[in-house]
Q: What sequence folds into this?
């Protein structure tokens, strides 16, 4: 039982950045923008969240409190991801560039942005790399909720995570509510399904696309920040995002564009990521290490073979909308 | 005339209309302006880091052209870039988003390395090298064929599929390094250096890969622009429905093209292990597969232009290594610059394909759009 609880805990912790990325990309794709730059935006968020805390601590020579660090990291990671998505939106929505290539460009830029500034700030750091103080790190430690955390089995399984895990879950619930229960959500889905119709119904297509893509990018940025703050515990590691953004893009397909299913997908893939520590299969470690990527391939194949109509993407995802060329 | 007055109120400040045609020179002028702007933004970045942008750029150029060693090194960087760009460019032309060149290069490297490590005593040098090259092409081709097969049969998303295969190829290499092919004389998980007979000969100071990749460029150019198969892949890229209507077996074209595209990438892997590194490790591909996307796209998927673009990107990469030591700017700045250049060049196409019409312009002007 203990092993199972440990495995479950590890799966949740590893799945959370995937959940952020998937939620951000779901919101983005609902507007009809297929932003393949998730990996890049996660890198930008990972660096910016960490660097904001690092630079302030070094600059002022103080140790930040945990809660301040969390807030600062959330704000800057979100802004960085949103900035990447904004560049994408300017190109795709306003300048009508090809979506795939623009997303790839954003990925290349974002990876460079993260790795470059990570290395650059690290050189000017007193310890030689980008890191944050112990007290700031406390903000990302597992919470101990009175009473709830003490419930046997359920306590350690559900109420013993860092604050970002709960933020991700809240975001999933909020996004599901937004898309399915609010007028704005309905409008947004209309923009992704049929922009011309939405335009005719006097929905401001451009504004929805920009907003959804930028906020989605910001959420992806949070996923990256989770990696630099929790996974690598507040230390900048070169290439730390290592494909999680791409898995998130695949999880959008797996989750069939539904935030609630994204939750399950992220948990399952979080499990795949840490499986090798809990379930020895006799495969060489170096190969087992790549299991999440193999599982992603499997998911892609299976979902493409059994295509169900209700589970299809927004009808106009990946297609640019020009009012003049309707 | 009163109508114009009404118009002036209703028309937005700026409108967009498609251009019918644009003179070639004007299009290239816009692109040149885009490139210059991107370098200016890069310069602003250098300025923000506290350096004189002109000095930094001058130093980059100096490292790439100054002296024979610098130039040779630039060419060495350009060889795999050009090769991989040929590979992905061909797939892109078909609107097949092969972003797995990295993995295909690694698979090619793995296949070639097998012969270099275990067959070099049994084969005379020319036979060995040719076998390595062919094996590498087969390895890359197989790695490219897998996603192509699923895309052709069930429409499986090839962008993510090809990318995921990169990580799998990485895994295979780390496994081989640590286990099967691990060097017995070494405590670290590394693979032995190749025997001299398994290394590519040099010509004018650079491994002979530069000749091979130029020949390859010519062949790919002829294949795409002069052969029936090349025409078919362009049609599939324009519209799969049109291709089907014209009686083209789309699935077949996809698999055939990816077999070639992967094969070329695999061959690049051979040139890297046998010409540049003389061994196999995780950095054999070194991000080339990704940068090649930039090269292919900036060259408008034209193989001949790719030669220039690959060389240009190689200058950037080579220069970035230099400014790491002279200006203490991390060499990863190359990726940032490449990203910025890509953004600007993508934006350029908008100004080539469309024109902006401002409100105060004469209405009669607009009708053409």
A:
């Amino acid at each position: 039982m203990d092993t199972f609880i440990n495995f479950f805990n590890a799966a949740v912790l590893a799945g959370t950045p995937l959940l952020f990325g998937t939620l951000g990309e779901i919101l983005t794709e609902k507007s009809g923008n297929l932003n393949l730059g998730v990996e890049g935006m996660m890198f930008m968020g990972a660096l910016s969240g960490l660097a904001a805390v690092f630079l302030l601590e070094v600059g002022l020579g103080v140790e930040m409190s945990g809660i301040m660090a969390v807030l600062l990291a959330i704000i800057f990671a979100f802004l960085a991801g949103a900035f990447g998505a904004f560049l994408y939106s300017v190109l795709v929505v306003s300048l009508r560039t090809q979506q795939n290539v623009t997303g790839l460009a954003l990925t290349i830029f974002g990876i460079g942005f993260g790795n470059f500034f990570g290395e650059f700030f690290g050189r000017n750091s007193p310890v030689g790399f980008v890191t944050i103080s112990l007290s700031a790190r406390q903000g990302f430690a597992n919470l101990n909720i009175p009473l709830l955390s003490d419930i046997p089995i359920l306590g350690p399984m559900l109420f013993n995570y860092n604050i970002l895990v709960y933020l991700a879950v809240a975001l999933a619930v909020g996004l599901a509510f937004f898309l399915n229960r609010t007028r704005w959500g309905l409008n947004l889905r209309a923009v992704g399904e049929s922009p011309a119709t939405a335009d005719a119904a006097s929905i401001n297509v451009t504004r929805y696309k920009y907003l959804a893509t930028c906020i989605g990018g910001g959420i992806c940025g949070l996923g990256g920040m989770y990696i630099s703050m929790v996974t690598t515990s507040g230390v900048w590691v070169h290439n730390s995002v290592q494909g999680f953004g791409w898995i998130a893009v695949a999880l959008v397909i797996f989750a069939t564009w539904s935030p609630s299913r994204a939750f399950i997908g992220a948990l399952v893939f979080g499990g795949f990521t840490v499986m090798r520590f809990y379930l020895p299969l006799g495969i060489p470690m170096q190969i087992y290490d790549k299991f999440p990527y193999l599982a992603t391939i499997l998911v892609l194949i299976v979902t493409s073979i059994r295509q169900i109509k209700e589970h299809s993407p927004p009808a106009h995802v990946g297609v640019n909308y020009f009012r003049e060329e309707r | 005339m009163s109508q114009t007055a009404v118009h002036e109120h209703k028309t937005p400040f700026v409108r967009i209309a498609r251009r019918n045609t644009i003179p070639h020179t004007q299009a290239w002028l816009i692109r040149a302006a885009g490139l210059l702007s991107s370098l200016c933004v890069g310069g602003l970045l250098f300025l923000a880091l506290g350096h004189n942008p002109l000095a930094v750029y001058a130093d980059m150029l100096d490292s790439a052209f100054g002296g024979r060693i610098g130039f040779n090194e630039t060419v060495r960087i350009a060889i795999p870039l050009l090769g991989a760009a040929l590979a992905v460019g061909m797939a892109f032309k078909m609107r097949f988003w092969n972003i797995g060149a990295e993995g295909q290069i690694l698979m090619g490297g793995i296949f070639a390395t097998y012969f270099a490590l275990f067959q070099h005593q049994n084969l005379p040098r020319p036979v060995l090298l040719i076998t390595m090259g062919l094996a590498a092409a087969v390895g890359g081709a197989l790695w490219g064929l897998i996603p192509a097969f699923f895309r052709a049969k069930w429409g499986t998303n090839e962008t993510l599929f090809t990318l995921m295969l990169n990580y799998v190829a990485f895994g295979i290499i780390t496994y081989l390094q640590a286990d099967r092919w691990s060097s017995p004389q070494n405590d670290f998980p590394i693979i032995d250096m190749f025997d001299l007979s398994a290394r590519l000969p040099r010509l004018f100071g650079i491994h002979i890969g530069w000749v091979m990749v130029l020949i390859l460029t010519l062949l790919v150019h002829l294949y795409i622009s002069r052969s029936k198969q090349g025409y078919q892949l362009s049609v599939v890229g324009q519209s799969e429905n049109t291709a089907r209507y014209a009686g083209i077996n789309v699935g077949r074209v996809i698999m055939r093209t990816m077999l070639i595209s992967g094969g070329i990438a695999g061959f690049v892997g051979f040139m890297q292990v046998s010409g540049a590194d003389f061994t196999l490790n995780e950095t054999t591909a070194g991000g080339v597969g990704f940068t090649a996307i930039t090269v292919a796209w900036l060259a408008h998927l034209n193989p001949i232009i790719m030669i220039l673009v690959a060389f240009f990107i190689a200058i950037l990469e080579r220069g970035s290594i230099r400014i790491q030591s002279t200006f203490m700017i991390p060499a990863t700045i190359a990726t940032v610059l490449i990203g910025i250049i890509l953004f600007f060049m993508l934006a350029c196409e908008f100004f080539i394909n469309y024109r902006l019409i401002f409100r105060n312009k004469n209405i009669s002007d607009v009708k053409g759009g």
In short: Chain B has a mean pLDDT of 89. DSSP finds 14 helices and four strands in chain B.
